[in-house]
Amino acid sequence: MTRIAPGCRLRWLARQLEEYTVHSRQRIVIIGGGISGLTSAHYLHRRLADEVQITLVEGSPRLGGKIASVPFGGHSVDVGPDALMVRSPAVATLIEDLGLGDLVVAPNASGARIWSRGKLRRLPAGTLFGVPDRLLPLLRSGLLSPAGVARAALDIVLPRRRRPQPADPTIAELVRPRMGAEVFDRLVDPLLGGVHAGRADELSALSTAPDMASLARDNRSLYLALGKRRRSAPPQTAGSPLVTLRGGLATLIDALAARLAGDDIRLGSPASLLTRTASGYTVLLADGTSIEADAVVLATSAAVTVGLLGAESPALAVSLAEIPYVDVATVCLAYPSAAVPTDLDGTGFLVPPIEGRLVVGCTWSSAKWPHLADDDLVLIRCMVGRRGDARWLDLDDDTLVGRVHGELVEAMGLTQEPIDRHIERWPQGMPQYVVGHQARLDAAATALLALPGIHLTGSSYRGVGLASCIVDAERTADAIAALTADRSVTEVAS
Q: By percentage, how much of the chain surpasses pLDDT 90?
């Protein structure tokens, strides 16, 4: 009988233990390296620690998805989303966990405007997604004609609608009958359009403005219900609900990536197919390589998810293929300070679709964010593109800048051409939660029951904002952690 020296035996046992540990760790592949994919990986590590082995696959050569900060005008400027909603506890906690608390920057609190009826007008105090709860500030703002304000006031006395509201009404179906066309066209549509790049006469109220849907369902008058809500609401906590980070939101991406330094992160490696196997799933990459997984998180657009999983689940493909998208672009322009005739008093402005402009919204970045303030330059960010408006898509960069600049001249009275520019086009950049969105999600959830270990997260589903993506990523990690715990209990019992 061959005897094994004690030292060799220990090394052999260590190797066996290492192999067992590696093979017993749950192999999770995350497809998509934007905020949803990165935060999913972050929360999985927080929940499962050494029990998880993560591979993150990203088709582009960088992480971050639509979060991108670029050098512009001597500053780092975001050309995708430029703010985080920190009133979401998950976001505030994430910032602290990543050690980014000292980099948080709150905006200058001077309010937004709307380009309506020939001039920039202040957004009146007391609105929920543009629905007013005070008539006097609305009248003083000049946003609506006197007749439009009078029509809005009729909501106070109009009887409850005779027919019940649809199961999934549009925003327009809630607002127009109660407060008239002008409130909808010049307040609600631009505010929701600025968030979703959509049209509020197509957006599902349940999926985009559930608070408004609830108020309309449970109350006769929107105006009176909003007033009651305001009076009974607890005092707001100090500080702005929206913040950014010094250096741009790419700082958040860098911090998340640093926490994943021990993971297998593959950039420039688009996934091409996802197939089910006896033990889990195989992720096939475009370069021909494959990755075995016990579970897969698809932090991709619904359209990409359909391409990856459509063969495995036609039912899932049908439901997700019905989620539409809109092309958008960010146009950043820098002007000499002398080109702006007056000090910028505000954070920017929104443009109602009824005005027929290319610009959907404009942020006065150097006025909004203290860290971007510049004595010599005025930095302006414009968003172009909304559902139903493709006029800009075929414009080259020079023509697009010329059109945007022309509209800024009309709105702001600029007296000089921009001296610097950056254009970022986001094809299929904004999912649209049109009527029936929740029903599509419910159908997708049913289809996923036949695909255990597959999880969907991202802006296509339960919120387009960064905070919603972070919250949904945490929910996804919690679901995987719970399943992992159940599996461990089963293995021990067996």
A: 79
Residue 443 burial (CB count, 10 A): 17
Give phi and psi for 485, each to the nearest 5: -65, -40
Two structure tokens written together for 310: 């459509």
Beta carbons of 404 and 393 less than 8 angstroms apart? no
- Residue 461, strand partner residues: none
The CATH number of 324-431, from 3.30.70.2740, 3.30.1300.10, 3.30.1360.70, 3.90.660.20, is 3.90.660.20
> Which fold does the domain 6-65+252-322+434-493 belong to in CATH?
FAD/NAD(P)-binding domain (3.50.50)
Number of other residues whose CB lies within 10 A of the CB of residue 261: 7
Could you report the per-residue pLDDT of 343-387, keeping only the tens digit for each?
A: 788 899 999 999 999 999 999 999 999 999 999 999 999 999 999
The C-alpha atoms of residue 407 and residue 108 are separated, in whole angstroms, by: 24
Q: What is the pLDDT of residues 160-188, one digit of tens each?
A: 887 777 899 999 999 999 999 999 999 99
Please state which CATH number belongs to domain 112-232.
1.10.3110.10
Show the CA angle centred on residue 431, arms to residues 312 and 351, nearest 5°. Answer: 170
